[in-house]
Amino acid sequence: MTEQTQDGAGVGDAGGQGPDPLRIADQREFRQALKELREHRGITLKQLETETDRPGSKRLTSPTVSTTLKADALPDWDFVAAYVTACGVTGEGLKRWERAWEAVRKGTAPVEPDGAAGTPLPPPPPPGRWWQRAGRWLRTRRGLVAGGSAVTALSLAAAVGGWQIHVRHVQAQRDHDEQVQAAEAFARSHCGSRNTALMVHAGECTGVTDGQDGAGVFGSGLKPVLTALGAENRQTVKDGDYVTIGFLAPLTSQGKQKDLTLDQFVGEIEGAYTAVERANESDSHPKIRLVLANMGSGEERWAHAVEGLKAEKGLVAVVGMGLSQQQSVDAARALSKAGIAMVADLITADGFDSTGAIDPHGPINGLVRVAMPNKDQLTALGKKLDTGPHTVALIGSDVTPAGGNDLYTKSLENGFRTIPSLSKYLDDDSPDFPFSPQGGADAAMPSIGQNLCRGADSIDVVYYAARAKYLPTFLEALRHRSCYKKPITVVTGSDAAALDPAMKALHDPEAPITVMYASFPSPAGLSAPAHRDHGLYTGFVQAFTSDHHGRHFPAGHLERSYWPVLAHDAVLTAATAIHTAAANAAGHTPNRYDVTNQLYTLGDEAVPAATGRLGINRQGNRTDLPVTIHTLPAPD
Prior knowledge:
Blueprint: E1 3-4, E2 18-19, H1 27-41, H2 45-52, H3 62-70, H4 77-86, H5 91-106, H6 129-139, H7 144-147, H8 150-189, E3 198-201, E4 204-209, H9 223-239, E5 242-249, H10 265-281, E6 287-294, H11 302-310, E7 315-320, H12 326-337, E8 341-344, E9 367-369, H13 374-385, E10 392-396, H14 407-418, H15 420-423, E11 432-434, H16 441-450, E12 461-465, H17 471-479, E13 488-491, E14 513-519, H18 523-527, H19 534-544, H20 556-560, H21 563-584, H22 592-599, E15 628-632
Parallel strand pairs: 5-6, 5-7, 7-8, 8-9, 10-11, 10-12, 12-13, 13-14
Antiparallel strand pairs: 1-2, 3-4, 4-6, 14-15
Helix pairs in contact: 2-4, 4-5, 9-10, 10-21, 11-12, 13-14, 16-17, 21-22
């Protein structure tokens, strides 16, 4: 790495000699260059802390600087911007550091390779009789050179020169082949891209992309929305005044056996993108750059995805947050520790909010959500069910297909056992059928279904505390149990919204089966004139199905599940906090702490969400919940 003496090249507006960031090749050199910059400017760690203790800057304490520069990782952009600005780098100099940081992050550094490196010397000539004779001849006092035979000497020199050219050519070809092989190996391990934030793990591409790394990095399903995202982000960055929101979720599938998303994540990302596009089309500032962070189908790579997000320039919030499982909680705690605001879109497990009551480890500051908590769902279902005597069985599964804690199903089971209007039907003699998806749910369901037949005491209500993924198999088992003619109702959580309402098990007149769950109004209900905020939903539908930089999203994704509209509302909630914070700021772009604070000031109806206007309470939960009871098959 060389140094620059031109004004603005290294130290910025101050000029003078210092490290040239555009010659930096990797994150180790980047951290070393930061140290050299501070030493060159004569800035102490105490002065650095004082200079960064101001609005709009990340405050860099001495321990923070020491820890960050010793860590084997590229510092995040907020750290770099605060650090180099405190060292006197502004204007074009700051832009050079930003270009260098982006290049190192994406694996394309150096921006300007050092041209001072000399051409390597060719390897020594190979041994051989001819070469040895030529050497002896050149060394003899009576050789042709000493005797003045210039012609022969020139011929020999030409031969030597020709050999050197040949050696250099062979070495150059060898170097080229090695570089090609290294580049191909790098691309294979980084999802076919040059982005070090993307990594292939167990056959899945995980990590962070802004849409510039190829539309197919997360699979063919996301190609349209990633193409649109890349174009939108290019325009946003070009305009200059922007902040970054990360969308954290499982965005790939290892197959149906381990997948709990049922491929609904495609519509989820389309909904999130629609919210960003709408926000950027408005007059609000700053504009929003959206990046996607894939945790993998089982969320096993949550830590890699979170670290990638923390390194993103201008990150002020993370939305999505995955499903109701332990990895999502671990990710939330890591982001909270970094002071990053979070808006969950789908997670309904009780306690996945600012209280952190979902586990024993205390509050999760900055975590809010727009989903409907399980407790609210089950309370509404209990009121509906509280119409007479029932004989109830409970079926549950408390682990994911990968073997982790399934906090959604655990929360459902806890609600069934503790909410008075539901728990009163359970006693010590009530049948209880736990099962593990790891052991093969399909094999367990027929036996469970048959065990519900008990003569006059046959079960008429099932509390289903498991994933909707296994519900079709269970409904078929109910249809074929020996007491199939006895009507039976399955009460479950909002996950059931993904069921196909036309499935045969729900339409067999000989085997009357009803599924009952609580969630938001249906798409038809949200757009109905009787719904107070129907205009907000129809506006979302129009935006979702419009042109997105030459790409279109299927309208059918809106009918299939609530994931698109909830992702939209989560991003909209974050955007509302960002723009409100900017309006209240003293001329600076809001940072992550501003946005976190603003989330808790969003009162009732502050967010014009497509599912209905909402606010955020002190626990981080949504206000104005439009709880709706759904039954399948739908009543005539």
